[in-house]
C-alpha cells in the first residue's frame, strides 16, 4: 500500500510516519485484502488540538475516510484509526460480499465539477442576474454501483451524499443522509 503522510504547517517526523504506516496498515488489512493507497493529513485546529484525517482507497474502488481530534498528535491519529477500524468492521461482511460479487473494480465515469460564487448580498438585495459566476472548474469520477454499494460507500467515506451511476440501468442516482437519520435515494427514472 502506498502512503502519503503530510502535515499542514506541522512537521511530520519519521517516527510518526512509521507509526502511521504500521498501525493503519494493520487496521486496513484486517478487513480489506487489497488497499491501494492511503492519505493521512495532520493539522492543528487551534493551539491545543491536533486533527488527523485519513482516506484509504481500496482496490475495489471504494474509499474509507475518518478523522480524529486530540490534544496530542499520536492521540489524534489513534482516534482517527479507531474510527476507521469501526467503519471497516461494521462493513466487513458487506465488503467481502461486494468483493466476491464484483470480479472487476468499480467503473468510474468522468464528470465536471463547478464551484459557484456565493452571493453574500442575496439576503439583503435582489441579485443583478440569475446566472451564477463560476469560480472553479474541476473533474471528478462518478462510480457505477448498486444502491446498496452506494449507501455503503457514502457511509465509509463519511459523506453527506453520493452521486453514482446505478449499475442496473446506467442512470445517475443520488443517496443522501436525511435530517431524520435515514438514507434517502433519488432515482429520476422511477418518477411517474
Automatic annotation (TrEMBL):
SUPFAM superfamilies: Ribosome binding protein Y (YfiA homologue) (SSF69754). One of its GO terms (biological process) is negative regulation of translational elongation. Pfam families: Ribosom_S30AE_C, Ribosomal_S30AE. GO terms for molecular function: ribosomal small subunit binding. The keyword Hydrolase does not apply. GO terms for cellular component: cytosolic small ribosomal subunit. It is found in: Cytoplasm. InterPro entries: HPF/YfiA_ribosome-assoc (IPR050574), HPF_long/plastid (IPR034694), RHF-like (IPR036567), RHF/RaiA (IPR003489), Ribosom_S30AE_C (IPR032528), Ribosom_S30AE_C_sf (IPR038416). It comes from the Bacteria. Residues 131-184 form the Sigma 54 modulation/S30EA ribosomal protein C-terminal domain. Keywords: Cytoplasm, Translation regulation. Interacts with 100S ribosomes. Associates exclusively with 100S ribosomes, which are dimers of 70S ribosomes. NCBIfam families: yfiA (TIGR00741). Required for dimerization of active 70S ribosomes into 100S ribosomes in stationary phase; 100S ribosomes are translationally inactive and sometimes present during exponential growth. Belongs to the HPF/YfiA ribosome-associated protein family. Long HPF subfamily. This is Ribosome hibernation promoting factor. It comes from Phaeovulum veldkampii DSM 11550. The lineage of its organism: Bacteria, Pseudomonadati, Pseudomonadota, Alphaproteobacteria, Rhodobacterales.
Amino acid at each position: 500500500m502506498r502512503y502519503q503522510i503530510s502535515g499542514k504547517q506541522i512537521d511530520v517526523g519519521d517516527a510518526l510516519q512509521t507509526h502511521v504506516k504500521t498501525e493503519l496498515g494493520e487496521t486496513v488489512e484486517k478487513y480489506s485484502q487489497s488497499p491501494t493507497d492511503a492519505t493521512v493529513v495532520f493539522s492543528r485546529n487551534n493551539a491545543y488540538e491536533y486533527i488527523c484525517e485519513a482516506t484509504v482507497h481500496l482496490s475495489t474502488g471504494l474509499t474509507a475516510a475518518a478523522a480524529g481530534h486530540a490534544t496530542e498528535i499520536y492521540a489524534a491519529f489513534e482516534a482517527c484509526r479507531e474510527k476507521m477500524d469501526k467503519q471497516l468492521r461494521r462493513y466487513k461482511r458487506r465488503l467481502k460480499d461486494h468483493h466476491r460479487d464484483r470480479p472487476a473494480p468499480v467503473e468510474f465515469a468522468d464528470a465536471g465539477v463547478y464551484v459557484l460564487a456565493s452571493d453574500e448580498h442575496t439576503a439583503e438585495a435582489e441579485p443583478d442576474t440569475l446566472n451564477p459566476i463560476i469560480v472553479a472548474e474541476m473533474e471528478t469520477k462518478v462510480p457505477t454501483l448498486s444502491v446498496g454499494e452506494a449507501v455503503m460507500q457514502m457511509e465509509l467515506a463519511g459523506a453527506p451524499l453520493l452521486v453514482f451511476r446505478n449499475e442496473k440501468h446506467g442512470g445517475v442516482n443520488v443517496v443522501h443522509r436525511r435530517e431524520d437519520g435515514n438514507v434517502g435515494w433519488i432515482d429520476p427514472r422511477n418518477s411517474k
